[in-house]
Amino acid sequence: MASSRKPTTKLAAFMATLPLLALLFLSGALEAVVGASNDTSAAGASYTCSSGSMFLASQSVFSLDRYGARGDGRHDDTRALARAWKAACASPRPAVVLVPNGRRYLLKVVTLRGPCKSTVTVTVKGTLVASPNRADWSDRDRRLWIVFRSVNKLTLDGGGTIDGNGHKWWPHSCKINKALPCKEAPTALSFHYCTNLKVDNLKIVNSQQIHMSVEDCANVQLAKLSITAPGTSPNTDGIHITRSKDVWVTNCKIKTGDDCISIEDGTHKLHVSNVICGPGHGISIGSLGDDNSRAKVSGITIDSIQLHGTTNGARIKTYQGGSGYAKDITFQNMIMYNVKNPIIIDQNYCDKTRPCREQRSAVQISNVVFENIRGTTVTKDAIKMSCSKNVPCQGITLQNIDLKMQGGKGITESTCQNAKWRKYGSVVPQPCTSKYKGTVGLLLEFLLSSHSWSSW
């Protein structure tokens, strides 16, 4: 019996040391984490908990504060963000760049480059705010503020804010002060050559110019974004998309001084749904063909949109002299609230300091559907189709449209130039009737309402 009690005693002694060993282990782990927080080259903690969000143990977390950021809204934190990004991008396992909650991180121009070794998530809990000093931007980088370039599988999320400090820039715009030369201002958030990109649950406010630009990207998901600037702010487009494909924009609220969403050359397979827009200039394809350029846009679906007090609703705009095409476009399930131009195609668009000269060539507009669009307008011309004489609009479909004057203050009309169109169902106002007057006009209106198609 004595021999059997001896190993039991040793086991009991070993078990008694376990709490001490665990304490020593935890102490060492905490010491390592504290040491890492003082070492800006550290690989990052394996997990952390911030503002109620737990990061998984499989992720490395790189907080701006660990890289020297002050987060007081006064000191420059640009280097801290750049260093945190560099470490996260070099991480062999999924990484999180954390912008902590409750703090304001002042930034000048910064470009965060890939490719990265693994996936990177930038979790914005606090606020990234632009420097109020316009001299921090040179003529070379005036168009940019925060740029992500050549990154695969990038995610931005967190519910925080990106503040462009635009009120420091807007008074210097030639659109506000006609005596000033026209110069570009920074885009708050730019994505260049990114693939498999997700931007979710962010607030972008008061951008210097465009709020978000997606350029040369593929497989992009933009969701639950709140984009806000005063209706008088110049050129503050909400989301700008160009030379990109397979892009989804869903569940966003955009209130700006320019286009809520602007869709430019090289955009293919874009789907926009459940967006609330206004104030602003509406949702626009274009402008295309500027300075005799060639444009290619196709496969665009704009679905389930509310527009409140916007200058335009569903718009396609091109310059004279351009070439290429804008085709296979659908605007559907849209509600207009006191919109100035609910449906408009303008192939004589001109936004230059001098009048644009008349030219024969134009971007070909074809296979465009306006379907299930209803609401109110503040002008009589609810439908405007001003197309090129030499390159007429082809295959325009108007289906189930009901656009009435605000407060019932008159009858809406429509105008058409060089547009080949077809109507289905009830279309109010009748297409292309306002160019006709008197008895002949009434007869033509009756004939149009009795047939399913017509063209000019």
Automatic annotation (TrEMBL):
It holds the Pfam family Glyco_hydro_28. Its EC number is 3.2.1.15. InterPro entries: Glyco_hydro_28, PbH1, Pectin_lyas_fold, Pectin_lyase_fold/virulence. One of its GO terms (biological process) is cell wall modification involved in abscission. The keyword Signal applies. It is found in: Secreted, Cell wall. Belongs to the glycosyl hydrolase 28 family. This is endo-polygalacturonase. It comes from Miscanthus lutarioriparius.
